[in-house]
Amino acid sequence: PLVSSLPLIKKAKEKKAAIAAFNIHNLETIQAVIEGASEERAPVIIQTTPGTLRHAGIEYIGAIVKKAADMVDIPVALHVDHCPSFDTIVHCIRNHYTSVMIDGAHLDYEENVALVKRVTEMAHAVGMQVEGEIGKIGGVEDDMFVNEDEAALTVPSEAKQFVEDTGIDTLAIAIGTAHGMYKGEPKLDFERLSEIEAMVDVPLVLHGASGVPDASIKEAIKRGIAKINIATELKNPMAKAIVSTFEKNKDENDPRNYMGAAREAVKKVVKEKIRLCGSNGLA
Ligand code: 13P
Ligand code: ZN
Ligand code: NA
């Protein structure tokens, strides 16, 4: 069934695990996540960026995920990722979304707090939880682009203040990850993570997990990360599976063949990432 994400995240944290949150784009990727999570007996978060909502439609995504979640006996949460708009968040909540991320990273501190607080008050009034972000995660996601000099690691004291000022339920932090893949090996600032974890009461979220070595993901979870966002590492196998279908038969024209291959490829990664997060068997 479709459920709130916060209890899932808290339960995973108690078990020294994290909930894998997968960015999806269409019917087949929703099925890949639900089937993969279901086979792993893992609570899971399905999330969409505003770009995906523009592409697929909030009503379509909400209805498909609601139906898919009702058909399985694992908890599934539906989350809007990196949303800068109060209105879009309301629209999502009206369409089966069970938690939201308000992203005010482009604003200065005071404006960011004002926006996040407004969203949090509204969301809490209707029983929804809110993820906020402090610091700036680098890389490209949708129409957001943060280059290396603009990216800013989270300052622990600011994280504490931000949580207090806004009333958010989970906090996304910048500790050296970036959206998309990496040129070299990303270096995560684990000490900063532990410092933030010691100062902040709400569960912490790691964005930009694609391309981060498994050992670093595990260390991050050990130090308190309880939700792991994965987008690019699902997009890549999907594209590869489609390309390889057409390489085998350039006249392929059956969407069930190339999208079916894509769904299988994505599902395989979903299961691997769930095991990496240690959320398998928690449902
Ligand atoms: P990746 O594309 O690096 O997995 O980042 C995902 C993310 O943070 C979505 O919000
Ligand atoms: Zn992100
Ligand atoms: Na990444």
What can you tell me about this protein's structure?
With 283 residues, the protein is α/β, with parallel strands linked by helices. The chain has one domain: Alpha-Beta Barrel (TIM Barrel). The protein is 49% helix and 18% strand. The chain has eleven helices and eleven strands. It has helices at residues 6-14, 27-40, 50-56, 58-70, 86-93, 109-125, 156-166, 190-199, 214-222, 232-248, 255-277, and strands at 19-23, 44-48, 76-83, 99-102, 129-134, 138-141, 144-146, 170-173, 178-179, 204-206, 225-230. The strands form two sheets. Strands 1-2-3-4-5-8-10-11 form an eight-stranded parallel β-barrel, surrounded by ten helices. A three-stranded mixed β-sheet has the order 7-6-9, with no helix packed on it. The model has no long low-confidence stretch (mean pLDDT 96). It binds 1,3-dihydroxyacetonephosphate (13P), zinc ion and sodium ion.
The gist of it:
With 283 residues, the protein is an alpha/beta fold. Helices cover 49% and strands 18% of the residues.
Set down the secondary structure blueprint.
Elements: H1 6-14, E1 19-23, H2 27-40, E2 44-48, H3 50-56, H4 58-70, E3 76-83, H5 86-93, E4 99-102, H6 109-125, E5 129-134, E6 138-141, E7 144-146, H7 156-166, E8 170-173, E9 178-179, H8 190-199, E10 204-206, H9 214-222, E11 225-230, H10 232-248, H11 255-277
Parallel strand pairs: 1-2, 1-11, 2-3, 3-4, 4-5, 5-8, 6-9, 8-10, 10-11
Antiparallel strand pairs: 6-7
Helix pairs in contact: 2-4, 2-11, 5-6, 7-8, 10-11
Bound molecules: 1,3-dihydroxyacetonephosphate, zinc ion and sodium ion (NA).
The site of sodium ion has 8 residues, from strand 9.
InterPro entries: Aldolase_TIM (IPR013785), Class_II_FBP_aldolase (IPR050246), FBA_II (IPR000771)
Protein name: Class II fructose-bisphosphate aldolase
GO biological process, one term: carbohydrate metabolic process
